[in-house]
Amino acid sequence: MTEEIKKTNDGFVPIPTGETPAQPATQRAGQRGGFGQGQRVGGGFGGQRKPGFGRGGGFSKDRPNDGFESKLLDLARVTRVTGGGKRMSFRATVIAGDKKGKVGIGVDKGRDVSQAIEKATRRAKKNLINVVIIDGTIPHEVQAKSGPAVILLRPQKKGRGLVAGGAVRAICELAGIKNVSSKILSGSKNKLNNARATMEALKMLKVKS
Questions:
Q1: Model pTM greater than 0.70?
Q2: pLDDT at residue 170, as a whole number
Q3: Looking at domain 132-203, does it have CATH number 3.10.180.10?
């Protein structure tokens, strides 16, 4: 085996012909695709995202429209105290209806706002009730109570509109009632209790024989 002579600071050192001198670390890393100038291999960080997956990592697809409209009535941040500390979550109250006599209310919790609203919307569509509507209004006067909230609903003539506010107006609008007047007989200002009392009042509606 022949030898070559390499000049160093210590003098001339013989190097075998079959071997190559050591390369710098950056150059070696670049050749094997490390932190140098080597080509990045797909599938690591910065790789192309797979189609069909949203930003949160879950599978996203376009859902068909089922004809229901939803409205967020109330959103509250609740805290559950456990032995390990406090756990924060959000509670959403959503009203869903098709404006053709079907309406429902859903209450659910989630770790973030979007999760709470989505779960409450699904629950509202599962709790739908059929509302008796005659010529755009209710057939008779009705009064209902849920907890401390007491709600009174009265029918109105065509063109009067929705003489109501807050939770009562939102429920009547999504149910398809166009003319009605309401009154809160209690001093409760809780939206959830007023909404539940309104739903109980709508359940009591019957067609007069």
A1: no
A2: 94
A3: no
